[in-house]
Amino acid sequence: MKRYNSPPNWPTPPPGWQPPPGWRPDPEWGPPPPGHEFWIEDSDVFGPSNQRGKAIAITALTVGGIALLLCWVPVVNNLVFVLGLAAVVLALVASVVTIGAQSSFRGMAIAAVAVSILSVVGVLASQAYYQSIISDAFGVSKDEMGQRPSAITSESGPPAGEASPSANPSEPDAGTANRPFPLGTTASMGPDYEVTVVAVKLDATAEVLAVNRFNGPPEGQYVLVQLQVRYVGVGEGNPWIDLSPTFVGSDARQYDAHECNAVLAQAAMEVPTLENGGKATYQVCMDVPVGATDGARIFVERRLSFSDKARAYWALS
């Protein structure tokens, strides 16, 4: 883009002035210097020289301000981190442009740099703070909750001579959805629990209904799972709060034990708080559609889990 360049010995026109069609200079101004270029490339893409960088400085400050306001909001601040980085880049560009041109907006650009950097620091600080709260509340770090459970012992397995889809507990991928543990295998669930799925009764409707006359009939059929846990953490644990057993049916749907409200003979809520070395055996139930139990699996994970890698699977056959 070209703009009019008035000769130095002519009167200085107003900023942005362009000669209208048919315009002629006043003869009294005299001739322009030899070789003078009346039309030159306009390098000022940000406006007049005293306002260079205005638009980008305002944009950087606005984006940085929004990022700073939202940097403390959980989950949202993951996106705010990207927004803050974008604001930092815009602010740095605005600073280079405005300072180089001695623009009146250089102060705003510098402020945008400070606000944008604060927003990024705020995201990192708030996430570290929330993580410390989670670690204090559950006695386990995010990294530990993402560790894959490993087998400790295998007290029992499928009957001799029968094929089983379950994995040998010593295999590297044992305990995963594709290679579940056999029943009776004890899995280490992070730094706090050792869990064993002792037994599973796929059609326990009659047994569950007999425990308490207020137990209502299931929509499908009750599945009864017996668990044994040992607390190995440094503090104390409540298995019915900390652990979440789930039944994975052959219909490719999950059935959470906490959605089954039936009263059981060995209810999980009756397990006392455990300290290091404390053991408990309890039952959980799931309401599973009839016909969805063939080839099903059970998995156990911590209540607050950041990855399905922290699950331990057991095969039911």
The gist of it:
The protein is an alpha+beta fold.
Give the count of structural domains.
Answer: 2
| Helix/strand order | EEHHHHEEEHEEHEEEEEE
Using the coordinates above, name the CATH class of the largest domain. Answer: Mainly Beta
Continuous helix count: 6
Quaternary structure classification: single chain
| Main pleated sheet | 5 strands, antiparallel
Our measurement of the CA-to-CA distance between the termini, rounded to an integer number of angstroms, reads 77 Å
Q: In percent, how much strand structure appears in the residues?
A: 15-25%
What is the 3D form?
rod-shaped
Overview of this protein structure:
The structure is a single chain. With about 325 residues, the chain is an alpha+beta fold. It folds into two domains: about 45-140, no CATH class; about 150-315, Sandwich (Immunoglobulin-like), CATH 2.60.40. It is about 30% helix and about 20% strand. The strands form four sheets. A five-stranded antiparallel beta sheet has the order 3-4-5-6-11, covered by helices on one side. Helix 2 runs antiparallel to helix 3 (about 105-140). The N and C termini lie far apart (about 75 Å). The relative contact order is 0.11.
List keywords for this structure.
Immunoglobulin-like, alpha+beta, rod-shaped, four-stranded antiparallel sheet, 13 strands, 6 helices, 317 residues, five-stranded antiparallel sheet
